[in-house]
Amino acid sequence: MAVRTLFLLCAAISTGAVVGADWPPVLLVVPVAALLLLVAGAVKLRTAARKIDTIFAEELTRETPAEIGESIEIS
Q: Is the dihedral angle over the CA atoms 14, 15, 20, 26 positive or is it negative?
């Protein structure tokens, strides 16, 4: 959360600097691209975390052979 806030603050400062200095707006491409990459990375991270949680939940709900009462052969 703090990283997102920091990037938003940086983007706002960059926008203010570009507009205030009367520079060409094309210079805003870099801060906007950085913000988009941050958002895309956060979305991918959340998706991966959900998938991992689902896998662990499935594994934890499975019964082990000992719980079912099956014998285990070790050869």
A: positive
Q: What is the pLDDT of residues 2-18, one digit of tens each?
A: 777 887 788 788 888 88
Q: What angle do CA 15, 18, 13 make, to 5 degrees?
A: 35
Residue 35 or 49, more confident:
49
CA 15 to CA 12: how far, in whole Å? 5
What token pair was written down for 71? Answer: 């014998």
> Residue 34 is which amino acid?
A
Sign of CA dihedral 51, 34, 29, 21: positive
Cα 60 from Cα 75, distance rounded (Å): 27
